[in-house]
Structure formats: structure tokens, C-alpha cells
Amino acid sequence: MTNDTPAPTSCCSTGTADPDVAGAGSETAPGAASDDMTTCPVMVGSAVSKKAAEAAGLYRDHEGERYYFCCAGCGPAFDADPARYAAGVA
What we know:
The chain contains three helices and four strands; from the N terminus they run ββαββαα. By secondary structure, the chain is of the alpha+beta class. It has a two-stranded antiparallel sheet. The chain has a two-stranded antiparallel sheet with strand order 3-4. The longest helix has 8 residues, at 82-89. The chain is globular. 32% of the residues are buried. The model is unreliable at 14-23 and 27-32 (pLDDT under 50).
């Protein structure tokens, strides 16, 4: 059985109209509180500062939960199959 939707190898290299926004969610301020940190549901293992991701608009709400992304390319990937990515975080 094959899966028609391959897992992204790297969405962070996709282009964005605003280079200042690309990767904004993965910035970590010195001394950032650990409760501010999470991981990207699309690029699992990529650390994300919730505060920076929110400021850059790199998040989505799905079924009452907020998901934060490491880069601008992850939002559209999440939108395409939110249940798949949400399940990977649970």
C-alpha cells in the first residue's frame, strides 16, 4: 500500500514572499522560557518559539488546539491535512 502524500523532507526551503517571515517561528530569544517552546507538527523535531511564531503568523488552530510552525512553508502543508499532522503531535 502506498501513501500518495509523501512526508516533506524540508518545507523550510520553500520560497516566501517575505524573507523576514521565513523561519521566524524558529528564532529563540536568549533566555526564552521553556514553556514558550514547542515543536513544529510538520517538520517534527524543529524547535519553535510560540511567541515568535504567533508574532509572525506561523500558527493554525485545529479542533481547539493551536499548532505552531517553524517556517512559512509549514502552514500550507498543515492546511492540506491537519488531522495527519495533529495526530503526530498528540
